[in-house]
Design a protein that fits this description.
By secondary structure, the protein is α/β, with parallel strands linked by helices. It has 18 helices and 15 strands. The chain has two domains: 222 residues, Adenosylhomocysteinase-like (Rossmann fold, 3-Layer(aba) Sandwich), CATH 3.40.50; 157 residues, NAD(P)-binding Rossmann-like Domain (Rossmann fold). The structure holds adenine.
Protein backbone atom coordinates (compact mmCIF):
# COMPACT_ATOMS: atom_id res chain seq x y z
CA UNK A 1 0.00 0.00 0.00
CA UNK A 2 1.26 3.42 -0.99
CA UNK A 3 1.17 5.32 2.30
CA UNK A 4 3.19 8.07 3.99
CA UNK A 5 2.29 8.71 7.61
CA UNK A 6 4.05 9.83 10.78
CA UNK A 7 4.06 6.66 12.89
CA UNK A 8 2.22 3.35 12.44
CA UNK A 9 2.53 2.55 16.14
CA UNK A 10 -0.07 5.26 16.89
CA UNK A 11 -2.80 3.10 15.32
CA UNK A 12 -4.44 1.76 18.53
CA UNK A 13 -5.18 5.27 19.83
CA UNK A 14 -6.44 6.31 16.42
CA UNK A 15 -8.79 3.34 16.21
CA UNK A 16 -10.37 4.29 19.55
CA UNK A 17 -11.03 7.80 18.28
CA UNK A 18 -12.48 6.55 15.00
CA UNK A 19 -14.86 4.19 16.79
CA UNK A 20 -15.85 6.88 19.32
CA UNK A 21 -16.71 9.28 16.49
CA UNK A 22 -18.58 6.54 14.65
CA UNK A 23 -21.04 6.19 17.56
CA UNK A 24 -22.23 9.72 16.69
CA UNK A 25 -22.40 9.15 12.94
CA UNK A 26 -25.54 7.01 12.60
CA UNK A 27 -26.50 8.26 9.13
CA UNK A 28 -23.09 7.33 7.76
CA UNK A 29 -23.34 3.95 9.53
CA UNK A 30 -26.58 3.20 7.72
CA UNK A 31 -25.09 4.18 4.37
CA UNK A 32 -22.03 2.05 5.13
CA UNK A 33 -24.19 -1.00 5.83
CA UNK A 34 -25.97 -0.57 2.48
CA UNK A 35 -22.71 0.12 0.62
CA UNK A 36 -21.28 -3.08 2.12
CA UNK A 37 -24.10 -5.08 0.47
CA UNK A 38 -24.54 -3.19 -2.79
CA UNK A 39 -20.94 -2.13 -3.57
CA UNK A 40 -21.98 0.93 -5.64
CA UNK A 41 -18.38 2.16 -5.93
CA UNK A 42 -16.86 -1.25 -6.83
CA UNK A 43 -13.38 -0.98 -8.28
CA UNK A 44 -13.56 2.79 -8.79
CA UNK A 45 -10.36 4.73 -8.10
CA UNK A 46 -11.08 7.61 -5.72
CA UNK A 47 -8.77 10.20 -4.19
CA UNK A 48 -9.88 12.34 -1.27
CA UNK A 49 -8.13 15.50 -0.06
CA UNK A 50 -9.82 16.15 3.30
CA UNK A 51 -8.88 16.96 6.88
CA UNK A 52 -7.52 13.66 8.22
CA UNK A 53 -9.68 13.31 11.32
CA UNK A 54 -11.62 10.56 13.04
CA UNK A 55 -14.80 11.71 11.25
CA UNK A 56 -13.10 11.59 7.85
CA UNK A 57 -11.86 8.10 8.73
CA UNK A 58 -15.47 6.97 9.04
CA UNK A 59 -16.25 8.43 5.62
CA UNK A 60 -13.25 6.53 4.23
CA UNK A 61 -14.52 3.28 5.82
CA UNK A 62 -17.88 3.92 4.14
CA UNK A 63 -16.38 4.50 0.69
CA UNK A 64 -14.21 1.43 1.10
CA UNK A 65 -17.27 -0.61 2.11
CA UNK A 66 -18.81 0.58 -1.18
CA UNK A 67 -15.88 -0.98 -3.03
CA UNK A 68 -13.81 2.14 -3.82
CA UNK A 69 -10.05 1.94 -4.28
CA UNK A 70 -9.09 4.81 -2.07
CA UNK A 71 -6.31 7.21 -1.21
CA UNK A 72 -6.68 9.90 1.46
CA UNK A 73 -4.41 12.93 1.67
CA UNK A 74 -4.56 15.99 3.95
CA UNK A 75 -6.31 19.20 2.94
CA UNK A 76 -4.35 21.17 5.54
CA UNK A 77 -0.92 20.45 7.04
CA UNK A 78 -2.01 21.18 10.61
CA UNK A 79 -5.31 19.29 10.79
CA UNK A 80 -3.97 15.75 10.37
CA UNK A 81 -4.53 13.49 13.37
CA UNK A 82 -1.49 11.20 13.06
CA UNK A 83 -3.05 8.43 15.16
CA UNK A 84 -6.10 8.36 12.90
CA UNK A 85 -3.89 8.22 9.80
CA UNK A 86 -2.00 5.29 11.35
CA UNK A 87 -5.19 3.40 12.16
CA UNK A 88 -6.59 3.90 8.65
CA UNK A 89 -3.46 2.26 7.26
CA UNK A 90 -3.05 -0.48 9.89
CA UNK A 91 -6.62 -1.39 10.81
CA UNK A 92 -8.62 -0.47 7.73
CA UNK A 93 -6.15 -1.00 4.86
CA UNK A 94 -6.66 2.50 3.46
CA UNK A 95 -3.72 4.32 1.82
CA UNK A 96 -3.14 7.61 3.62
CA UNK A 97 -0.47 10.17 2.75
CA UNK A 98 -0.62 12.82 5.47
CA UNK A 99 1.66 13.88 8.29
CA UNK A 100 0.74 16.48 10.91
CA UNK A 101 2.88 19.61 10.38
CA UNK A 102 4.12 18.54 6.92
CA UNK A 103 5.84 21.29 4.95
CA UNK A 104 4.42 22.69 1.71
CA UNK A 105 6.70 20.47 -0.40
CA UNK A 106 5.49 17.29 1.32
CA UNK A 107 1.89 18.50 1.22
CA UNK A 108 2.08 18.88 -2.57
CA UNK A 109 4.02 15.62 -2.96
CA UNK A 110 0.96 13.96 -1.43
CA UNK A 111 -1.46 15.96 -3.59
CA UNK A 112 0.49 14.83 -6.68
CA UNK A 113 0.49 11.20 -5.56
CA UNK A 114 -3.31 11.34 -5.16
CA UNK A 115 -3.60 12.93 -8.62
CA UNK A 116 -1.18 10.65 -10.47
CA UNK A 117 -3.05 7.46 -9.56
CA UNK A 118 -5.82 8.52 -11.95
CA UNK A 119 -8.93 8.90 -9.79
CA UNK A 120 -12.32 8.88 -11.52
CA UNK A 121 -13.90 10.51 -8.49
CA UNK A 122 -12.24 13.05 -6.23
CA UNK A 123 -13.20 14.80 -3.01
CA UNK A 124 -11.72 18.08 -1.91
CA UNK A 125 -11.85 20.44 1.03
CA UNK A 126 -10.50 23.67 -0.46
CA UNK A 127 -10.01 22.48 -4.10
CA UNK A 128 -6.23 21.85 -3.92
CA UNK A 129 -6.59 18.39 -5.49
CA UNK A 130 -8.86 19.56 -8.32
CA UNK A 131 -6.65 22.54 -9.01
CA UNK A 132 -3.47 20.37 -9.10
CA UNK A 133 -5.13 17.86 -11.46
CA UNK A 134 -6.16 20.74 -13.72
CA UNK A 135 -2.72 22.34 -13.72
CA UNK A 136 -0.44 19.30 -13.85
CA UNK A 137 -2.37 16.17 -14.86
CA UNK A 138 -4.43 16.86 -18.04
CA UNK A 139 -4.71 13.13 -18.90
CA UNK A 140 -6.13 12.41 -15.45
CA UNK A 141 -8.54 15.36 -15.72
CA UNK A 142 -9.98 13.89 -18.92
CA UNK A 143 -11.19 10.81 -17.01
CA UNK A 144 -12.61 12.39 -13.84
CA UNK A 145 -16.38 11.74 -13.77
CA UNK A 146 -17.05 14.11 -10.90
CA UNK A 147 -15.46 15.85 -7.98
CA UNK A 148 -17.10 16.79 -4.70
CA UNK A 149 -16.19 20.01 -2.87
CA UNK A 150 -16.70 20.23 0.88
CA UNK A 151 -16.11 23.86 1.74
CA UNK A 152 -17.26 27.41 0.87
CA UNK A 153 -13.75 28.52 -0.13
CA UNK A 154 -13.39 25.54 -2.48
CA UNK A 155 -16.75 26.21 -4.12
CA UNK A 156 -15.73 29.86 -4.68
CA UNK A 157 -12.51 28.67 -6.39
CA UNK A 158 -14.41 26.19 -8.56
CA UNK A 159 -17.02 28.76 -9.62
CA UNK A 160 -14.13 31.05 -10.61
CA UNK A 161 -12.65 28.22 -12.72
CA UNK A 162 -16.05 27.61 -14.37
CA UNK A 163 -16.45 31.35 -15.06
CA UNK A 164 -13.01 31.49 -16.70
CA UNK A 165 -13.83 28.43 -18.86
CA UNK A 166 -10.97 26.59 -17.13
CA UNK A 167 -13.02 23.77 -15.57
CA UNK A 168 -12.34 20.40 -17.24
CA UNK A 169 -14.70 18.05 -15.39
CA UNK A 170 -17.99 18.21 -13.46
CA UNK A 171 -17.82 19.30 -9.82
CA UNK A 172 -20.51 19.09 -7.18
CA UNK A 173 -20.88 21.78 -4.50
CA UNK A 174 -21.43 19.54 -1.47
CA UNK A 175 -20.91 22.62 0.72
CA UNK A 176 -24.07 24.14 -0.69
CA UNK A 177 -26.30 21.19 0.25
CA UNK A 178 -28.73 22.32 2.98
CA UNK A 179 -27.84 19.39 5.22
CA UNK A 180 -24.21 20.52 4.96
CA UNK A 181 -23.84 24.27 5.40
CA UNK A 182 -26.85 24.94 7.67
CA UNK A 183 -25.34 22.58 10.24
CA UNK A 184 -21.63 21.96 9.62
CA UNK A 185 -20.76 25.59 8.78
CA UNK A 186 -22.98 27.10 11.49
CA UNK A 187 -23.07 24.73 14.46
CA UNK A 188 -19.87 22.83 13.63
CA UNK A 189 -17.68 25.89 13.06
CA UNK A 190 -19.43 27.78 15.87
CA UNK A 191 -18.55 25.16 18.46
CA UNK A 192 -15.17 23.99 17.15
CA UNK A 193 -13.80 27.53 16.67
CA UNK A 194 -14.58 28.42 20.26
CA UNK A 195 -13.15 25.05 21.31
CA UNK A 196 -9.87 25.77 19.47
CA UNK A 197 -9.57 29.26 20.97
CA UNK A 198 -10.16 27.94 24.47
CA UNK A 199 -7.73 25.01 24.07
CA UNK A 200 -5.03 27.38 22.79
CA UNK A 201 -5.51 30.22 25.28
CA UNK A 202 -7.60 28.91 28.21
CA UNK A 203 -9.19 32.36 28.20
CA UNK A 204 -12.51 33.20 29.81
CA UNK A 205 -14.90 34.18 27.06
CA UNK A 206 -17.42 35.92 29.34
CA UNK A 207 -17.00 39.68 29.33
CA UNK A 208 -14.49 39.74 26.46
CA UNK A 209 -14.88 41.89 23.37
CA UNK A 210 -14.71 39.46 20.47
CA UNK A 211 -14.42 40.82 16.94
CA UNK A 212 -15.78 38.48 14.27
CA UNK A 213 -14.78 39.27 10.68
CA UNK A 214 -17.52 38.14 8.29
CA UNK A 215 -21.12 37.11 8.77
CA UNK A 216 -21.52 34.05 6.55
CA UNK A 217 -22.75 30.76 8.00
CA UNK A 218 -19.48 29.99 9.81
CA UNK A 219 -19.19 33.46 11.32
CA UNK A 220 -22.87 33.40 12.33
CA UNK A 221 -22.29 30.16 14.21
CA UNK A 222 -19.20 31.51 15.95
CA UNK A 223 -20.85 34.84 16.84
CA UNK A 224 -23.83 33.00 18.32
CA UNK A 225 -21.67 30.69 20.43
CA UNK A 226 -19.34 33.49 21.61
CA UNK A 227 -22.40 35.50 22.68
CA UNK A 228 -23.72 32.41 24.45
CA UNK A 229 -20.53 32.34 26.51
CA UNK A 230 -21.05 35.95 27.55
CA UNK A 231 -18.78 37.76 25.11
CA UNK A 232 -19.59 41.17 23.73
CA UNK A 233 -19.54 40.37 20.01
CA UNK A 234 -18.63 42.92 17.32
CA UNK A 235 -19.10 41.95 13.67
CA UNK A 236 -17.29 43.47 10.67
CA UNK A 237 -18.69 42.92 7.15
CA UNK A 238 -18.42 44.19 3.58
CA UNK A 239 -21.84 42.90 2.46
CA UNK A 240 -24.58 45.37 3.46
CA UNK A 241 -27.28 42.68 3.75
CA UNK A 242 -25.14 40.48 5.98
CA UNK A 243 -24.16 43.55 8.02
CA UNK A 244 -27.87 44.33 8.54
CA UNK A 245 -28.53 40.74 9.50
CA UNK A 246 -25.74 40.88 12.09
CA UNK A 247 -27.10 44.16 13.47
CA UNK A 248 -30.62 42.75 13.76
CA UNK A 249 -29.28 39.56 15.33
CA UNK A 250 -28.16 41.88 18.11
CA UNK A 251 -24.47 42.32 17.35
CA UNK A 252 -22.56 45.57 17.17
CA UNK A 253 -21.41 46.18 13.58
CA UNK A 254 -18.50 48.46 12.68
CA UNK A 255 -15.41 48.64 10.46
CA UNK A 256 -12.27 46.69 11.31
CA UNK A 257 -10.48 50.04 11.75
CA UNK A 258 -12.94 50.98 14.50
CA UNK A 259 -12.96 47.50 16.05
CA UNK A 260 -9.16 47.16 16.15
CA UNK A 261 -8.55 49.24 19.33
CA UNK A 262 -11.53 47.68 21.13
CA UNK A 263 -11.20 43.90 20.63
CA UNK A 264 -9.66 41.45 23.07
CA UNK A 265 -9.85 38.65 20.51
CA UNK A 266 -10.25 38.77 16.71
CA UNK A 267 -11.37 35.85 14.57
CA UNK A 268 -11.60 35.94 10.77
CA UNK A 269 -14.16 33.75 8.98
CA UNK A 270 -14.46 35.44 5.59
CA UNK A 271 -12.69 33.30 2.97
CA UNK A 272 -10.85 36.41 1.75
CA UNK A 273 -7.29 37.66 1.91
CA UNK A 274 -5.69 40.21 4.31
CA UNK A 275 -8.77 40.99 6.36
CA UNK A 276 -6.64 42.07 9.34
CA UNK A 277 -3.69 44.12 8.16
CA UNK A 278 -0.77 46.14 9.65
CA UNK A 279 -2.95 49.27 10.01
CA UNK A 280 -5.25 47.19 12.24
CA UNK A 281 -2.49 45.42 14.22
CA UNK A 282 -1.00 48.85 14.87
CA UNK A 283 -4.14 50.00 16.69
CA UNK A 284 -4.74 46.86 18.76
CA UNK A 285 -4.52 46.70 22.56
CA UNK A 286 -1.50 45.17 24.26
CA UNK A 287 -2.25 41.44 24.56
CA UNK A 288 -4.81 41.27 21.75
CA UNK A 289 -5.28 37.76 20.37
CA UNK A 290 -5.86 37.10 16.66
CA UNK A 291 -6.88 33.91 14.89
CA UNK A 292 -8.52 32.61 11.75
CA UNK A 293 -11.18 30.01 11.14
CA UNK A 294 -11.43 30.45 7.36
CA UNK A 295 -10.06 27.70 5.10
CA UNK A 296 -6.73 29.24 4.06
CA UNK A 297 -4.10 30.99 6.19
CA UNK A 298 -4.45 34.22 4.21
CA UNK A 299 -7.00 36.15 6.25
CA UNK A 300 -4.46 37.62 8.68
CA UNK A 301 -1.63 39.53 7.03
CA UNK A 302 1.06 37.67 8.96
CA UNK A 303 3.93 38.66 6.63
CA UNK A 304 2.88 42.26 7.42
CA UNK A 305 2.79 41.54 11.17
CA UNK A 306 6.23 39.88 10.99
CA UNK A 307 7.67 43.00 9.40
CA UNK A 308 6.22 45.12 12.23
CA UNK A 309 7.57 42.84 14.98
CA UNK A 310 10.84 43.51 16.78
CA UNK A 311 10.65 40.13 18.48
CA UNK A 312 8.75 36.90 17.80
CA UNK A 313 8.41 34.29 20.54
CA UNK A 314 7.12 30.99 19.19
CA UNK A 315 4.93 28.67 21.24
CA UNK A 316 4.54 30.77 24.36
CA UNK A 317 1.59 28.42 24.88
CA UNK A 318 0.05 25.58 22.87
CA UNK A 319 -0.57 26.95 19.34
CA UNK A 320 0.23 30.52 20.45
CA UNK A 321 3.01 32.80 19.11
CA UNK A 322 3.85 36.20 20.58
CA UNK A 323 4.69 39.17 18.34
CA UNK A 324 6.28 42.14 20.14
CA UNK A 325 5.88 45.45 18.29
CA UNK A 326 8.19 48.44 18.44
CA UNK A 327 5.83 50.17 20.87
CA UNK A 328 6.29 47.21 23.27
CA UNK A 329 2.73 46.02 22.58
CA UNK A 330 2.28 42.26 22.29
CA UNK A 331 -0.03 40.55 19.81
CA UNK A 332 -0.76 36.84 20.06
CA UNK A 333 -1.38 34.79 16.91
CA UNK A 334 -3.05 31.40 17.28
CA UNK A 335 -2.20 28.35 15.13
CA UNK A 336 -0.04 30.35 12.69
CA UNK A 337 -3.21 31.86 11.28
CA UNK A 338 -4.43 28.46 10.08
CA UNK A 339 -7.86 27.03 10.81
CA UNK A 340 -8.03 27.39 14.59
CA UNK A 341 -10.78 24.78 14.96
CA UNK A 342 -8.75 22.02 13.31
CA UNK A 343 -5.25 23.09 14.31
CA UNK A 344 -5.89 23.66 18.02
CA UNK A 345 -8.98 21.46 18.45
CA UNK A 346 -10.43 18.45 16.64
CA UNK A 347 -12.64 20.16 14.06
CA UNK A 348 -16.40 19.81 14.06
CA UNK A 349 -17.95 17.16 16.26
CA UNK A 350 -18.91 13.84 14.67
CA UNK A 351 -22.66 14.47 15.03
CA UNK A 352 -22.49 17.27 12.48
CA UNK A 353 -19.87 15.67 10.19
CA UNK A 354 -22.30 12.74 10.01
CA UNK A 355 -24.53 14.78 7.72
CA UNK A 356 -21.76 16.40 5.67
CA UNK A 357 -20.09 13.07 5.03
CA UNK A 358 -23.36 11.27 4.37
CA UNK A 359 -23.87 13.82 1.59
CA UNK A 360 -20.34 13.14 0.31
CA UNK A 361 -20.89 9.37 0.23
CA UNK A 362 -24.31 9.58 -1.44
CA UNK A 363 -23.12 12.16 -3.96
CA UNK A 364 -20.24 9.85 -5.01
CA UNK A 365 -22.79 7.12 -5.67
CA UNK A 366 -24.99 9.60 -7.60
CA UNK A 367 -22.05 10.74 -9.77
CA UNK A 368 -21.35 7.15 -10.81
CA UNK A 369 -25.03 6.58 -11.60
CA UNK A 370 -24.87 9.52 -14.06
CA UNK A 371 -22.48 7.35 -16.08
CA UNK A 372 -20.21 10.17 -17.30
CA UNK A 373 -23.12 12.27 -18.60
CA UNK A 374 -22.82 15.20 -16.19
CA UNK A 375 -22.13 18.56 -17.82
CA UNK A 376 -18.79 20.21 -17.07
CA UNK A 377 -19.97 22.81 -14.56
CA UNK A 378 -20.56 23.32 -10.83
CA UNK A 379 -23.57 21.14 -9.92
CA UNK A 380 -25.84 21.34 -6.89
CA UNK A 381 -26.37 18.24 -4.76
CA UNK A 382 -29.75 16.70 -5.75
CA UNK A 383 -32.60 17.56 -3.35
CA UNK A 384 -33.33 13.84 -2.81
CA UNK A 385 -29.97 13.53 -1.04
CA UNK A 386 -30.76 16.44 1.31
CA UNK A 387 -34.20 14.94 1.99
CA UNK A 388 -32.83 11.49 2.69
CA UNK A 389 -30.05 12.75 4.99
CA UNK A 390 -32.33 15.09 6.97
CA UNK A 391 -35.05 12.47 7.44
CA UNK A 392 -32.59 9.82 8.54
CA UNK A 393 -30.82 12.24 10.90
CA UNK A 394 -34.19 13.15 12.49
CA UNK A 395 -35.00 9.44 12.85
CA UNK A 396 -31.69 8.79 14.62
CA UNK A 397 -32.50 11.72 16.95
CA UNK A 398 -35.91 10.15 17.63
CA UNK A 399 -37.72 13.23 16.30
CA UNK A 400 -40.99 12.84 14.42
CA UNK A 401 -42.43 15.54 12.16
CA UNK A 402 -45.85 16.14 10.63
CA UNK A 403 -46.89 15.34 7.07
CA UNK A 404 -48.95 17.55 4.77
CA UNK A 405 -52.58 16.46 4.49
CA UNK A 406 -53.90 15.92 0.92
CA UNK A 407 -55.91 19.13 1.39
CA UNK A 408 -52.73 21.06 2.29
CA UNK A 409 -50.89 19.66 -0.72
CA UNK A 410 -53.74 20.78 -2.95
CA UNK A 411 -53.79 24.25 -1.33
CA UNK A 412 -50.06 24.71 -1.88
CA UNK A 413 -50.40 23.73 -5.52
CA UNK A 414 -53.37 25.95 -6.29
CA UNK A 415 -53.40 29.63 -7.17
CA UNK A 416 -57.17 30.15 -7.14
CA UNK A 417 -57.76 30.52 -3.40
CA UNK A 418 -57.05 34.04 -2.11
CA UNK A 419 -58.32 36.50 0.50
N1 LIG B 1 -13.96 20.06 8.80
C1 LIG B 1 -14.32 20.62 9.96
N2 LIG B 1 -14.33 19.72 10.96
C2 LIG B 1 -13.96 18.53 10.41
C3 LIG B 1 -13.78 17.23 10.93
N3 LIG B 1 -14.01 16.96 12.21
N4 LIG B 1 -13.38 16.28 10.08
C4 LIG B 1 -13.17 16.57 8.78
N5 LIG B 1 -13.32 17.76 8.23
C5 LIG B 1 -13.71 18.74 9.04
Amino acid sequence: MNYDIADKSLAPGGKKRILWADKNMPVLQEIRARFEKEKPLAGRVMSACLHVTAETANLMRTLKAGGAELMLIASNPLSTQDDVAASLVEDYGIAVQAIHGEDTETYYKHVRAASARGPVITMDDGADLVSTIHKEFPDVAANVLGSMEETTTGVIRLRAMARDGALKFPVIAVNDARTKHFFDNRYGTGQSTLDGIIRATDMLIAGKKIVVAGYGWCAKGFSMRAKGHGAHVIVTEVDPVKALEAAMDGFEVMTMADAAPIGDLFCTLTGDINVIRPEHFEKMKDGAIVCNSGHFDVELDLPGLKKMAVEINKDVRFCTDEFVLESGKRIYVLAEGRLINLAAAEGHPADVMDMSFAVQALTSEWVLKQDGKLDVKVHEVPDEIDDYVSRLKLKTMDIQIDELTPEQVEYLNSWKIGT
